[in-house]
């Protein structure tokens, strides 16, 4: 049976009529209404609106305003709006007087105040309805531009509902969902031609099938089995099962107007023991994934390692601590280039190697959980030396893989290769020299630790001076291999902190990577927080931090080719479905950060793409399933995917013309 739709705003002129026009054109059974006492249209000033009674024909309003001031009402869009309305119906109608029109299956309002009035009216006559009604509020500002956007979003929403309204609703189900906000000046065309928009995930966080189809364990599979480590004993054994649901996920990307997908390959799914025997079922999975991406017009960005070192290599030679890992990683990378490089043209060696070295070997918070006892609950490790040994080997792994690619494959396959680095922006707490120096130390120990060697062939002087013999040295041959070992660098940017110089400088009882910074962290200045927090305690929303981070890389490292490879925020995992879907704070986050990114591009930063983290709610490392970063909601029991408001915000933003 055909469903009936009602569009409701305050005056039945702009927002409801735009939606009425769009839906009617697409064959929907639709009507539109207003809820105000009168119909109001802008006049010569705010104090002089044009006021009409509901039922006054649009033709009468059009003729009257054209007589009054044709230039004014053409310029402000009122005459074109009324002309459109004339083609839809005769006159504006008032919702409260619509009883004679019968009842509707779906009512969509465009303002919270209007929603409340519709709800009040429906509740006063629910005995007449005797049937379910779905009421949805889309918050759309009352101007022509956003009414047009609201009309398109309404069409998308109604088309979705048309597909899914097969089963009857619960009796008189009333919902207010998804306050979908407009993009406020952002569009695909706001960025340079060819600028790429994508989403990102990682293998262990989304694939599932962790111990099946031939995959060997990674250090994370072992680490999270530590009793009491994970909330609710969470694992990545099933996660969100992209291994089986990859087509559904790629279809979602396409539907949301994304261009690219940044995924990672599980080393132990290809080589269960890290080296030697190949797991061809794992190889086949990534072939299916890549092929379907290309079929749907999604560009693959393949990352070779996202924290998940094969456990076999951890047991064989202490994993990243053993120099043997350099050759093993290069061999693994070589296999991937040879197997997938005919289709994958964008390669990344590592995601956030600093996190691997620091959280894995300084605090033990991440796998493999090594540290000095002073800095974490670890059974083995040395926080003063191991992070630097691990980082050194990771840099050599990266450079060796790049060397293999450039020597054997790049000329034929015509791709590019790089690395993904996390970068928290560190802002001096005060203008003092001491705080400025502390902030610079923090930047050097953070992003400079990896970016400085691959750009300049050596570690930052700050680190060399502070660490002395604890900092490993590159040989002359290694310098030649490491320096310039990237075509593109990915920057993962989420947040910013204030940094101050400890006074007096405190001498640690035991050496450690974080202690070596000799920098204090602050999250407020003169009582004002640096920004509001997301669910994760480390994530402050500081859009200007992104601007400063990208500008810093541009100015200090020769403006390399960059992608903004991760950016996003999380909500608590236990939100109700309606609250999780109505993620307006995430929309505001993306909007603010993208504006800052656009500013860097406008000022000459060589940024070629942006990847939102993450496509899906997933396994969030030490937080398990208690944190949701996705723009698509995942029910962790049924694994059903439901796009959040932020997903539709991206869909709209990436379909908009430049203003």
From TrEMBL:
Pfam families: Glyco_hydro_1 (PF00232), Ssu72 (PF04722). It comes from the Eukaryota. One of its GO terms (cellular component) is nucleus. One of its GO terms (biological process) is carbohydrate metabolic process. It is found in: Nucleus. It catalyses: O-phospho-L-threonyl-[protein] + H2O = L-threonyl-[protein] + phosphate; O-phospho-L-seryl-[protein] + H2O = L-seryl-[protein] + phosphate. The chain crosses the membrane at residues 169-186. InterPro entries: GH, Glyco_hydro_1, RNA_pol_II_suA. The keyword Transmembrane applies. Its EC number is 3.1.3.16. It is an enzyme of class 3 (hydrolase). Keywords: Hydrolase, Membrane, mRNA processing, Nucleus, Protein phosphatase, Transmembrane, Transmembrane helix. Its main location: nucleus. GO terms for molecular function: beta-glucosidase activity; RNA polymerase II CTD heptapeptide repeat phosphatase activity. Belongs to the SSU72 phosphatase family. This is protein-serine/threonine phosphatase.
């Amino acid at each position: 049976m055909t469903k009936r739709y009602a569009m409701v705003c305050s005056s039945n002129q702009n927002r409801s009529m735009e939606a009425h026009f769009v839906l009617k054109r697409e064959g929907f059974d639709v009507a539109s209404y207003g809820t105000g006492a009168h119909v109001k249209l802008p006049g010569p000033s705010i104090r002089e609106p044009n006021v009409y009674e509901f039922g006054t024909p649009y033709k009468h309003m059009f003729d009257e305003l054209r007589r009054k001031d044709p230039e004014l009402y053409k310029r402000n869009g009122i005459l074109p709006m009324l002309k459109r309305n004339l083609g839809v119906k005769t006159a504006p109608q008032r919702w409260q007087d619509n009883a004679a029109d019968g009842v509707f299956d779906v009512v969509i309002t465009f303002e919270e105040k209007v929603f409340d009035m519709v709800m009040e009216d429906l509740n006063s006559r629910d005995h007449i309805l005797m049937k379910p009604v779905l009421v949805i509020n889309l918050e759309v500002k009352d101007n022509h531009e956003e009414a047009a956007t609201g009309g398109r979003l309404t069409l998308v929403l109604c088309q979705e509902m048309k597909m899914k309204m097969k089963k009857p609703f619960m009796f008189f189900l009333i919902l207010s969902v998804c306050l979908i906000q407009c993009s406020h000046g952002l569009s695909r065309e706001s960025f340079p031609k060819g600028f790429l928009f994508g989403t990102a995930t990682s293998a262990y966080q989304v694939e599932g099938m962790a111990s099946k189809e031939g995959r060997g364990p990674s250090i994370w599979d072992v680490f999270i089995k530590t009793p009491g480590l994970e909330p609710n004993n969470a694992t990545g054994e099933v996660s969100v099962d992209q291994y089986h649901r990859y087509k559904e996920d790629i279809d979602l990307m396409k539907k949301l107007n994304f261009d690219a997908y940044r995924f990672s390959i599980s080393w132990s799914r290809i080589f269960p023991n890290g080296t030697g025997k190949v797991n061809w079922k794992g190889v086949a999975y990534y072939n299916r994934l890549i092929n379907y991406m290309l079929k749907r017009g999604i560009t693959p960005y393949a990352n070779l390692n996202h924290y998940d070192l094969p456990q076999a290599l951890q047991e064989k030679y202490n994993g990243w601590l053993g120099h043997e890992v350099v050759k093993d990683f290069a061999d693994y990378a070589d296999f991937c280039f040879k197997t997938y490089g005919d289709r994958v043209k964008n390669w990344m060696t590592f995601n956030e190697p600093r996190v691997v070295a620091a959280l894995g070997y300084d605090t033990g918070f991440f796998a493999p959980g090594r540290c000095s006892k002073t800095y974490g609950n670890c059974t083995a490790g040395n926080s003063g030396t191991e992070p630097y040994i691990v980082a050194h080997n990771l840099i050599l792994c990266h450079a060796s893989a790049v060397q293999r690619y450039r020597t054997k494959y790049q000329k034929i396959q015509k791709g590019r290769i790089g690395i993904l680095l996390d970068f928290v922006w560190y802002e001096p707490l005060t203008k003092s020299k001491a705080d400025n120096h502390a902030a610079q130390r923090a930047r050097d120990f953070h992003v400079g630790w990896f970016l400085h060697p691959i750009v300049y062939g050596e570690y930052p002087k700050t680190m060399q001076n502070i660490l002395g013999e604890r900092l490993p040295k590159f040989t002359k041959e290694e310098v030649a291999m490491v320096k310039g070992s990237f075509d593109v660098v990915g920057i993962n940017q989420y947040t910013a902190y204030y940094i101050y110089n400890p006074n007096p400088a405190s001498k640690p009882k035991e050496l450690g990577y974080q202690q070596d910074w000799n920098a204090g962290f602050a999250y407020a200045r003169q009582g004002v927080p640096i920004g509001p927090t997301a669910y994760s305690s480390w994530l402050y929303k500081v859009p200007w931090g992104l601007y400063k981070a990208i500008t810093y890389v541009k100015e200090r490292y020769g403006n390399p080719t960059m992608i903004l490879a991760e950016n996003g925020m999380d909500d608590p995992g236990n939100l109700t479905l309606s609250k999780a879907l109505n993620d307006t704070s995430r929309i505001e986050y993306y909007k603010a950060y993208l504006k800052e990114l656009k500013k860097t591009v406008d000022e000459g930063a060589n940024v070629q793409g942006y990847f939102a983290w993450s496509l899906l709610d997933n396994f969030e490392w030490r937080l398990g399933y208690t944190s949701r970063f996705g723009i698509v909601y995942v029910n962790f029991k049924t694994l059903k995917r439901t796009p959040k408001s932020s997903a539709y915000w991206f869909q709209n933003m990436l379909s908009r013309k430049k203003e």
